[in-house]
């Protein structure tokens, strides 16, 4: 929860009035203008905050990504054009971070949170009430916990002397030092642990909206559970799947605290996703300009997803 | 033996229960670790039944330096930012929900776009900007940034709840000469109490757990909120005291878990937010 996630509010989007009939151009009534201004007044505190603290940094990001701004030593930064970006694409550590971000996103968000969330939501419809309440409560608690606490819990879980190896020992399976040998897998699992509740809630809400008659009719026709899922349920909730995947992906793209607490991106960069790479360049190596160029790339990927998400809402609603 | 629909349903329920319980068991292990270790005099990294119950870890951490100052800082930061967010969001949502304007749609689309931007990405430029304008290491700068980062989502949520309040109720007040501001304050907001509560609690919970923003924007140890000060259990104190770390995690997490439970009860089940974000 992170997940700062927007509501799906498609219908409102469409309801949002298209431009009202314009006032006759012959009399540009000052009264109307004044009234519109007066009505827009309450929006201004929000707009000022958003411009100063959100749009401002983004604009500044675009500017300093093209400079060689450093943290120390240098009196003035100078414009270096595309040098930061050229450097990034020659930098093996950067390419490694792009790859790991991809692995992390696909494993934990596209596959993990999404599939497990859907499976949990589907199972909950058939399960008995106490089991449903218990499981839902546990999964949601993992989601509500602060990011750093979740990081520590999973750190303890995956450590060599931690719980996972205890369980493996008990099952007579080989144990290993997860955070050292497979750190990206460990942090991906951590993200699944922390983020699945969101998908579960989204899919539970979506499944509840499917009319009972439809599934019952299919059942009478003899369609098996899997076929019903594949041919009826999934197509009916495809819009939820789209929005959920998009939001999960955006959320996962910006995970920092969880990985930072568990591995600091290590060992030797083996779990260093783009946000951690950006932080290391900007602060450990004091290259603010370079770090910002990486941030800008991350922002661009995010905006691309956002635009797709907006289109999805608009066309599918 | 023919299977009746009833017995088939029973079997299916058993299978679903079993599946859910397996997942629940996997999910509960890390949570069990934190609860058991906080009470275990010989806490380690492994889940085990404590060989005795003690409150010494809580005793050790419940000092001003370790717990109360960071929690107070968290409260000031998140409380201030939440207040700012909710007030600005309520004001902004009102004209968007009540008046027609050709600017509504572009504004709402921009806000929706902003809700999905990865805030993590802009922390480095925000740091550079804050250094330049002398807002770095200040509570007010952090509060403003927190509020701005939460605002797009809050405006969306607030507008949707506000749309649910019928306009007729206000029209009566308007004919009696009430201003828009008065009708927002006296009629609309009280009628959408649960909605305001959801926006408030959600904003607060998001900020309470946020690590990266204060980690970047605050430098002085005295100003650190709990999300950052929890790091001190590693490194600075030499050997990691896992029992104390677990105890602190519980103290720090309890407020948000309670708030979440409260709000989901009030809105009928834990699916209130799920409903708000459903596709």
Automatic annotation (TrEMBL), chain A:
InterPro entries: MetI-like, MetI-like_sf. Coiled coil: none annotated. It comes from the Bacteria. Residues 99-309 form the ABC transmembrane type-1 domain. The chain crosses the membrane at residues 43-66, 97-122, 134-158, 178-203, 245-267, 287-310. Its main location: membrane. Residues 1-30 are annotated as: Disordered. Keywords: Cell membrane, Membrane, Transmembrane, Transmembrane helix, Transport. Belongs to the binding-protein-dependent transport system permease family. This is Integral membrane transporter.
UniProtKB/TrEMBL annotation, chain B:
Keywords: Cell membrane, Membrane, Transmembrane, Transmembrane helix, Transport. It holds the Pfam family BPD_transp_1. The chain crosses the membrane at residues 20-39, 71-94, 106-130, 142-158, 196-219, 239-263. The keyword Cell cycle does not apply. Its main location: membrane. It is found in: Cell membrane. It is a multi-pass membrane protein. Residues 71-263 form the ABC transmembrane type-1 domain. One of its GO terms (biological process) is transmembrane transport. GO terms for cellular component: plasma membrane. Belongs to the binding-protein-dependent transport system permease family. PANTHER family: INNER MEMBRANE ABC TRANSPORTER PERMEASE PROTEIN YCJP, MALTOSE TRANSPORT SYSTEM PERMEASE-RELATED. This is Integral membrane transport protein. It comes from Streptomyces ambofaciens (strain ATCC 23877 / 3486 / DSM 40053 / JCM 4204 / NBRC 12836 / NRRL B-2516).
